[in-house]
Amino acid sequence: MRVLQFAKHSLVTLAAAALALSGCGSESAAPIVPFNPSGASADFDAVNTTFSSPVFTSFSTLSVLFDAALGGTPLVSASAAALDVHGGGTAGELQVAAARSAERIARIVPRPAGTGFSASSATISSQFLGKTFVYSGGTYVVSAETGAPTNGVRFILYALDPVTLLPAEPLDPTGYVDLMDLSSGSTAAARVVVVSGTTTYLDYRVSATSTISSGQVTVSGFITDGTTRATFSLRSTLTYASGLTLSYSLDVPARGLSIDLTMSASGLTPVASNIAVILDMRGQNGWVRLTGEFNSTGGALNVAINGTPFATITSTTGTAPVITGVAGQPLAQEELDALQRVFEFAGGSFAAFDELVAPAGTLLGGA
Hints:
Elements: H1 11-18, H2 37-50, H3 54-62, H4 66-69, H5 91-108, E1 132-136, E2 139-142, E3 152-158, E4 173-181, E5 188-196, E6 199-210, E7 214-224, E8 229-239, E9 243-252, E10 257-265, E11 275-283, E12 286-295, E13 298-305, E14 308-316, E15 322-325, H6 333-347, H7 349-357, H8 361-364
Parallel strand pairs: 1-3
Antiparallel strand pairs: 1-2, 3-4, 4-5, 5-6, 6-7, 7-8, 8-9, 9-10, 10-11, 11-12, 12-13, 13-14, 14-15
């Protein structure tokens, strides 16, 4: 889930990305404290660190190969580059990312003709249960190694070559990923656990359900870099009548930080969709809220601090966005820095969802 690594843009580009973001949060969730822009930046730096450990980088890069090894068709291209996207450097890019996520969810919960969505009952083939996969010749293959869960499979992780984003030669194992099938009844579900040494870096569950008119994929669990731990919950709902909604919440208890984001795309194609955004960041350094809407021609984003209007971002496709204080004044550098980190988080939300769902594609029926 290199969500924050993927959104490393200049401030100008990040501002445009923010137009695609929409977060939700309870206005009465916590006491309001004075805004500290430097402290808010430090909060987001801590979140970045949590999602940037070498173990997680190896996991998110190599997981696009898991489906093929299990005999399925990957939900994303079997290339690290498929996930190395900014997820919204401009309004148009965000719309493309939303349409891409909608297509992947539709593959997990396909819509049978005339009936509605249907969560797949796909499971791991019995020939693979309890097996450990190792990297060889550009792909993962079954090995004689032991230790895999009886209701799932294990994939060994390796140190990466920074140029090819493939395991460096000679192979240097750094940990493993256990994928476990938890499907039951009409719910397709999987558990993903990432371990290196004695530390569990990532542990989460992915589930897919459906109704007559919509399909929903939910991801929830925790991640750590070995020091800071964050819990997360992502829910993506696809409704053919109204489009795609992504809800994303993240909490870092050690910093008293809570981030809630909602993005709603009204259409299923980049050209047709309008994307509405609400994002709330609350913590020991204040409350930041971003709200706005955009389409293929541009849009506008309002920034409020502790409930008071603070800044406005406007953008037109093909031109640089304009960021000003609510009264038209320029912002201080530390304020711009704090907003930049908010933009980075929001801009990578669709990429984050894709990264977490990708390794469990076959178990959810995305083949």
